[in-house]
Amino acid sequence: MIKVGVCGFPRSHSVIFANFRLVEVQATFYKPVLKSTAERWRRAAPNDFEFSLKAWQLITHEPRSPTYRKAKLKIDASKVSRYGLFRPTNEVFEAWSATEEIRRALNARIVVFQSPASFVESPEHIKNMHDFFHSIEIDRGRGDTIMVWEPRGEWKRSTISTICEELNLVHCVDPFADQPVSGTDFGYLRLHGSPPGRRMYHYSYTEADLQFLHERCRYFSQVYVLFNNYTMFDDALKFKALLKQAGNR
User: Fold this and answer.
1) What is the pTM of this model?
2) Which tens digits make up the pLDDT trace of 80-99?
3) CA distances from 156 to 101, 105, 121, 122, 191 (A)
4) Which of 16, 51, 81, 217 could be cross-linked to 108 through a Cys-Cys bond (beta carbons 3.0 to 4.6 Å apart)?
5) Largest Cα–Cα distance of the chain, in whole Å?
6) Looking at the DSSP assignment, which residues form a beta bridge with residue 3?
């Protein structure tokens, strides 16, 4: 089963709901939306429509990240070392609680943790991940949520594989750049429109690209494909049409 969606709302909610059955909520990465807003989105969407969401950046990114400025987040100078990088601090766990509240309001089962390029393989970062995910699993009501990790820093594939196995995470990649180390039961792919030599988000996928993507999807029993480029709406529709022609649902 291949499920196609877009990252964020490149068109109105009604248009997205009419054309897809999946959207990854991006707003929650910058700053959690109101619970009432998430509940309204859930009510407006068809019953079989699925939301996934990105975890709040306070969990993964440090306050020096430009995404904090974009979200107009101001962190007290004495506390900057308590945010981001999966640090097992009260501030990070509070950010998870805020993310979890919106996940429940959306009735979403998938949370995407996108770690920055600065989050590279190191004993400290590995320990942070273990402490964080074990804590939210035991103390924070993780439940049946699927946790997806998209690392953007330098990591050995063997280390990613070990972490995903130990923490029950799904390794997320852009299939035009890498292959996930996780198993073939479930895949979560994010397409950033950035093939070699092209600026991220600016590329529009060709028919040949989409055929390649379809072949990559065949590795999985179930795979979610999220377009995240500037032409995501049109590209996702083209991929849906290709799947229909190929007899996929």
Assistant:
1) 0.94
2) 999 999 999 999 999 999 99
3) 33, 36, 8, 11, 21
4) 51
5) 57
6) 224
Q: Where in the chain are the domains?
A: 2-178
Contact assessment for residue 172 and residue 180, using Cβ atoms and an 8 Å cutoff:
yes
Find tokens 């393989």 and name the residue: 121
Band of the pLDDT at 174, cuts 50, 70, 90?
very high
Residue 84: which residues within 8 A CB-CB, separation 6 or more? 57, 58, 59, 60, 61, 62, 63, 65, 92, 116
Which pLDDT tens digit goes with each residue over 207-246?
Answer: 999 999 999 999 899 999 999 999 999 999 999 999 999 8
Structure tokens that stand for 173 in this block: 């990649």
Q: CA neighbours within 13 Å on the CB side: how many for 75?
A: 22
The topology under which CATH files domain 2-178 is TIM Barrel (3.20.20)
Q: What average pLDDT does range 122-147 have in this prediction?
A: 85
